[in-house]
Amino acid sequence: MIKLGVLLSGSGSNLQAIIDAIAAGNLDASVALVVSSRPDAYGLKRAQAAGIPTVALSREVYNNQAAADELIANELNRANVNYVVMAGYMRKVTAPILNMFPNRVINIHPALLPSFAGAHGISDAWEYGVKVTGVTIHLANAEYDKGPIIAQEPVIILEDDTTETLEERIHAVEHELYPKVLQWFANDKVHLNEKTGKIDIL
């Protein structure tokens, strides 16, 4: 069983998908700690309802990124976390976290990277007019949305889609794909190829 630390900034729907997958016996993991960049994030209530310890950063702490990431890294380490799972966490993680958990920080992005990186992947893809977008899960590194890709799942953009309906369908894919990929980690299937810099799924 792997121990996860989840970082979030908002509603925590991916956290809930992880909690539900664990409860259903589909993910051999536990969530040891949930960290929120906002004290009012609904994801904290989801964590508390599941009996998961939480840490919420004040605006003053969060505004100093070096101090915030040092605090987060220490809290995750204290919780004996194996993997850090970014689930709607709206800021790039930096050296204190990346160095504490080398190649063990996982991020989900609502587009098919390298296309439509950044904070507005869903609306950017919809406005550009592409016919297919999707979901990417990758290792986080020092470059925003550029870490090695672990898995991708396409989502077709329908003629009558709005950004809202597209967002709903992308989130539905996220909620299936994230627990599935985390189970790959639990089964030790995910390996970073040092020669190619790419992920091998064994």
Describe the protein:
By secondary structure, the protein is an alpha/beta fold. The protein contains 7 helices and 9 strands; from the N terminus they run E-H-E-H-E-H-H-E-H-E-H-E-E-H-E-E. The chain has helices at about 15-25, 40-50, 60-65, 65-80, 95-100, 120-130, 165-185, and strands at about 1-10, 30-35, 55, 85, 105-110, 130-140, 150-155, 190, 200. Strands 3-2-1-4-5-6-7 form a 7-stranded mixed beta sheet, with helices on both faces. A two-stranded antiparallel sheet has the order 8-9. Helix 2 (about 40-50) links the parallel strand 2 (about 30-35) and strand 3 (about 55). The longest helix is centred in the last third of the chain and has 24 residues, at about 165-185.
Give the SSE layout.
Blueprint: E1 2-8, H1 13-23, E2 29-36, H2 42-49, E3 54-56, H3 59-63, H4 65-78, E4 83-86, H5 95-100, E5 105-109, H6 121-128, E6 132-139, E7 149-156, H7 163-186, E8 190-192, E9 199-201
Parallel strand pairs: 1-2, 1-4, 2-3, 4-5
Antiparallel strand pairs: 5-6, 6-7, 8-9
Helix pairs in contact: 1-7
Output the keywords:
two-stranded antiparallel ribbon, globular, 202 residues, 7 helices, 7-stranded mixed sheet, Rossmann fold, alpha/beta, 9 strands
How do you describe this structure in short?
With 202 residues, the protein is an alpha/beta fold.
